[in-house]
Design goal:
Layout (H helix, E strand, L loop, with lengths): L1 H10 L17 H7 L7 E3 L5 E2 L3 E8 L5 E9 L3 E8 L23 E4 L3 E6 L2 E6 L4 E6 L2 E6 L6 E2 L20 E3 L2 E3 L8 E6 L5 E4 L18 E3 L21 E6 L2 E7 L5 E5 L4 E6 L4 E6 L4 H12 L12 E3 L7 H13 L6 E4 L20 H10 L3 E5 L3 E3 L5 H9 L13 E3 L2 E5 L5 H9 L14 E4 L26 H4 L3 H16 L8 E3 L11 E3 L7 H16 L5 E2 L1 E2 L8 H11 L5 E3 L15 H16 L1 H14 L4 E2 L1 H4 L13 E3 L3 E3 L9 E5 L2 E2 L2 E2 L2 E3 L5 E2 L6 E5 L7 E4 L2 E5 L15 E6 L6 E7 L13 E8 L2 E6 L11 E8 L7 E6 L4 E4 L1 E2 L6 E10 L4 E6 L4 H24 L1
Parallel strand pairs: 22-23, 22-33, 23-24, 24-28, 28-29, 29-30, 30-31, 32-33, 45-49
Antiparallel strand pairs: 1-3, 2-3, 3-4, 4-5, 5-21, 6-7, 7-8, 8-9, 9-10, 10-14, 11-14, 12-13, 14-20, 15-17, 16-19, 17-18, 18-21, 19-20, 25-27, 26-27, 34-35, 35-36, 36-43, 37-42, 38-39, 40-41, 40-43, 44-45, 46-47, 47-48, 48-54, 49-53, 50-51, 50-54, 52-53
The protein binds 1-deoxynojirimycin.
1-deoxynojirimycin (NOJ) binds next to loops.
């Protein structure tokens, strides 16, 4: 009965999360224990124990209350980063260390150490860490700027492993050795083992990070309230403005002030609560593990974000079509229906790249099988899609139906690949198929076996081009408290689930990625979408914000959530357009499309009981507005692709908060209803009903605002009082502005899908700054393979200055024979107006180009039809004495001279 009830709650959510299913800090013994700590700290470093090597200093730490000894190691790392590792010197048994989040062992930096009676100073390049003996604290300086203090408030608590005493100390928290939540007993065989410490960011005026929460981008104080919690959980109907944990958990937190941004990466995958005391102080509390912290010293926001991705990796450039529009719902029920959906898009002239299949395509939720009654010929369906220039993505969840006749289940069971109960039997819990077991992806052999399932030899009704959707991988178990695997379940090498819970999905996506790589013999870039994630998941997968709802608040939340996720390393983020639950009113639905067209992952999805809502079902103005939004996304695909290439190459976020580009404008620190794409576009989606205008912040730089241009018509935005502008919007308007000083590539030929746009020409949109200058980049390759890792690409820099636009190859060693030509160059607000333009390439070939000023737009157009992007070239604007005129004038002059000379001869 209980099972059925929870299943129903899981599927048919109406409004709000059932909070009672999920633990609060007060209901978690470890959180209570650590939250009760107050300073001054009772830890000191032990004189005479310092050991130093080239890159690190290690000193013993003592808890002065029970004399337990720990080691504290500080390492200097490349890129203004320190690592602090604190563990027990001789633990009863090894404590869990996260190993899968980092992309590789961090690169070390040389250090230099000095010691006095009261402190140890560790210098690394221009930075230093100063350990104060008693009470213990560590201050970090970037140059001479005090950037962070570890344990400044004395909240450090490191619970040493102990054998269970025969009689419990009455002063101890009563649930320290065993804990019950909603009738489920957590046996805690290792007893209490929490770790916690506070961090103080002296320069900070805003704290942000630690996704995933459905909350503001800036963290709010939690004193007297629930802390933010990081624990990957399936919270059906998650609420707005909530610090409850949801699907993802990334323990990186940033403090930003005008002169200094500092990051703290709390490298721990256990249940974690984060208290925010004020704009400068936080308190991290984890159930198990060690203290392992990366201190990112910035100093700018962008540098700090890059320091984090240097550690945890970036997203490989996606295949271009994954940046286009995706259509999903739970479920397209038959293979005919899939093709009908595509046909209907074509009928109303809306581009589409990928159709998604949810769980109903399978035979009874047995993944790696098809329901043959509804999808009798999956390969034929995939071929039909390819013929239409489209792709397919289907879902593979981590629960495996307990059914001996299902060979994937039986083989995993026989090989011992499932997560175990503490008694060694296979763990079982309820999910979509019914009673299920869960593959232990931490076991390399189990992960490999799972990955093998993607190979065509094992799953023939699959194709090398399909994308994969890993859902329910928090992992979700319907019939237990917190809807997930119990903490005392056991993984590979005997580690309890409590240590690594939030890494589970990460390990699944690692396996999926491996399977997809091998499926195409390493040729095609895998596309995976995951619901749960941890630090580093960006290396394998895109994410979306899960089961949102059809209200304006959730549209707003999609921006805040993706901003937090982006600065935590995962740039490929989006939300279910329209809201997963419900039936969005038409105005909201249109606005959601207009917003999502400017978010990295662009997919419409809906619950099984939501009325059908493919955009072709819209009519009139709404249909036109959605068509317009999807088409602008397609036109800008070269820009998106270039941004994702630059994310892979440099490590900064694609979608980024305003403070990344304007770190000194205090008015943008808390702003989370507008953002930037790279440093080129400012996006301010309309997120309220009946809006007639939106407030946009155009941050001043040195007291002056830059020039900005509306990307729909290149109207220049001027006269902003102090940088704030109220911009008029009608139903069709998506307020997006190109920054003066930038050049953006587009493909303007309208097609049904991105596959059909491969050879289309590029247009450049030049937005000049106050000095009449601009720069931009364009990246081109085969749009799908890894050949770009072997130099097969073009990476171009465009520069406009002195009335000339030029194109140069950024990497001389790179080469790609691009079929794309330059269609036209559009230059906004150019004064004075040139009369013509002259093209010259590196081989000194030259020709004249026509310029025009179309009535309906606010830019000059240079028609450039046959210019190859493979060449380096310059286009020079000609004014009164333009080249054409020169030739004509020169001719006239000779004619007059000849006449005069003839006259003279005659005389
Ligand atoms: C939960 C996911 O969040 C949702 O997007 C999906 O449709 C359902 N599971 C069914 O697979």
């Amino acid at each position: 009965m209980k099972t059925i009830l929870i299943l129903i709650v899981g599927i048919c959510f109406v409004s709000g999360a059932d909070r009672s299913l999920f633990k609060t800090c007060g209901q978690s013994s470890f959180c209570r224990r650590c939250r009760n700590v107050s300073g001054p700290s009772n830890y000191v470093f032990v004189q005479g124990t310092l050991a130093v090597d080239k890159n690190s200093a290690t000193v013993e730490i003592q808890n002065t209350q029970n004399f337990h000894i720990f080691t504290l190691k500080i390492s200097g790392l490349m890129d203004n980063t320190f690592r602090v590792e604190m563990d027990e010197k001789s633990p009863l048994s090894p404590r869990f260390r996260v190993t899968e989040a980092l992309q590789q062992e961090p690169i070390l930096e040389n250090i230099d150490v000095t010691i006095s009676d009261s402190e140890i100073i560790i210098r690394s390049k221009m930075n230093r860490a100063v350990i104060t003996k008693s009470p213990l604290k560590i201050d970090f300086y970037r140059n001479d700027v005090h950037a962070l203090t570890f344990n400044g408030n004395g909240l450090l608590r490191f619970e040493e492993l102990r054998t269970k005493p025969a009689v419990l100390d009455p002063s101890e928290d009563p649930d320290s050795w065993e804990e019950t939540f909603m009738d489920e007993v957590d046996s805690k065989p290792r007893g209490p083992e929490a770790v916690a410490v506070d961090f103080y960011f002296p320069e900070s005026e805003v704290l942000f990070g630690i996704p995933e929460h459905c909350d503001s981008f800036a963290l709010r104080t939690t004193l007297g309230d629930e802390p933010y919690r990081l624990y990957t959980l399936d919270v059906t109907g998650y609420e707005i403005d909530s610090r409850m944990p949801i699907y993802g958990a990334i323990p990186v937190l940033y403090g930003h002030g005008a002169g200094q941004t500092t990051g703290v990466f709390w490298h721990n995958s256990a249940d974690t609560f984060v208290d925010v005391h004020d704009k400068k102080t936080v308190h991290f509390i984890s159930e198990t593990g060690i203290i392992d912290v990366f201190v990112l010293l910035g100093p700018s926001p962008k540098e700090t974000f890059i320091q984090y991705t240097k550690l945890t990796g970036v997203t490989n450039l996606p295949q271009l079509h994954n940046l286009a529009y995706h259509q999903s719902r739970w479920n397209y029920m038959t293979q005919q229906e899939v093709i009908e959906v595509v046909d209907n898009f074509d009928l109303v002239d809306i581009p589409l790249d990928t159709v998604w299949l949810d769980i109903e395509y399978t035979n009874g939720k047995r993944y790696f099988t098809w329901d043959k009654s509804t999808f009798p010929q999956p390969l034929e369906m995939m071929q039909n899609l390819t013929d239409l220039g489209r792709y397919l993505t289907f879902i593979i969840d981590p629960h495996v139906f307990v059914d001996e006749d299902y060979s994937f289940y039986a083989q995993n069971r026989a090989r011992g690949y499932y997560i175990k109960n503490s008694d060694g039997s296979d763990y079982q819990g309820v999910c979509w198929p019914g009673m299920s077991s869960y593959v232990d992806y931490f076991n390399p052999e189990a992960r490999r076996f799972y990955a093998d399932q993607y190979l065509l030899e094992n799953f023939a009704e699959n194709s090398v081009t399909t994308g994969i959707w890993n859902d329910m991988n928090e992992p979700t178990v319907f019939d237990v408290p917190e809807k997930t695997i119990p903490r005392d379940a056991v993984h590979f090498n005997g580690w309890e689930h409590r240590n690594l819970h939030s890494l589970y999905a990460h390990m699944q996506t690692k396996g999926t990625y491996d399977g997809m790589m091998r499926r195409s013999n390493g040729e095609l870039r895998p596309f995976i979408l995951t619901r749960a994630f941890f630090s580093g998941t960006q290396r394998y997968s895109a994410v979306w914000t899960g089961d949102n709802t059809d209200t304006w608040e959730y549209l707003e939340a999609s921006i805040k959530m993706c901003l937090s996720i982006s600065v935590a390393g995962i740039s490929f983020c989006g939300s279910d357009v329209g809201g997963f639950f419900g039936d969005p009113e038409e105005e909201l639905f249109v606005r959601w499309y207009q917003a999502a067209a400017f978010q990295p992952f662009f997919r419409s999805h809906a619950n099984f009981d939501s009325p059908r809502r493919e955009p072709y079902l819209l009519e009139g103005d709404s249909l036109a507005a959605v068509r317009d939004a999807i088409k602008i996304r397609y036109a800008m695909l070269p820009f998106w692709y270039t941004m994702f290439y630059e994310h892979e190459r440099f490590g900064h976020p694609v979608m980024t908060p305003m403070l990344t580009n304007y770190p000194h404008d205090t008015r943008v620190f808390n702003l989370d209803n507008q953002y930037m794409l790279s440093d080129v576009l400012l996006v301010r989606p309309v997120t309220s009903k009946n809006a007639t205008e939106v407030e946009v912040r155009f941050p001043p730089v040195d007291g002056i605002t830059e020039l900005w241009y509306d990307v729909t018509n290149y109207n220049k935005i001027e006269n902003m009082a102090g940088g704030t502008n109220f911009y008029e919007v009608d139903r069709f308007k998506y307020p997006v502005f190109q920054r003066g000083g930038t050049i953006m590539p587009r493909k303007e030929t309208e097609r049904k899908s991105s596959m059909l746009m491969v050879d289309d020409p590029i247009s450049l949109f030049v937005a000049l700054d106050r000095n009449n200058e601009a720069t931009g980049t364009l990246y081109i390759d085969d749009e799908k393979s890894f050949n770009y890792h072997h130099g097969e690409y073009l990476y171009l820099r465009f520069t406009f200055s002195d009335n000339s636009l030029s194109s140069h190859h950024i990497d001389d060693h790179a080469h790609f024979e691009s079929s794309n030509k330059l269609a036209r160059v559009c230059i906004a607000d150019l004064n004075p107006r040139p009369l013509s333009a002259t093209y010259t390439n590196a081989r000194n070939e030259t020709r004249e180009l026509d310029v025009s000023y179309p009535d309906d737009v606010l830019y000059l157009v240079i028609e450039t039809t046959d210019i190859s992007l493979n060449d380096e070239w310059t286009i020079k604007l000609n004014y009164e004495s333009g080249a054409k005129q020169n030739i004509i004038c020169g001719g006239l002059l000779i004619f007059v001279l000849v006449l005069q000379f003839g006259k003279h001869l005659l005389n």
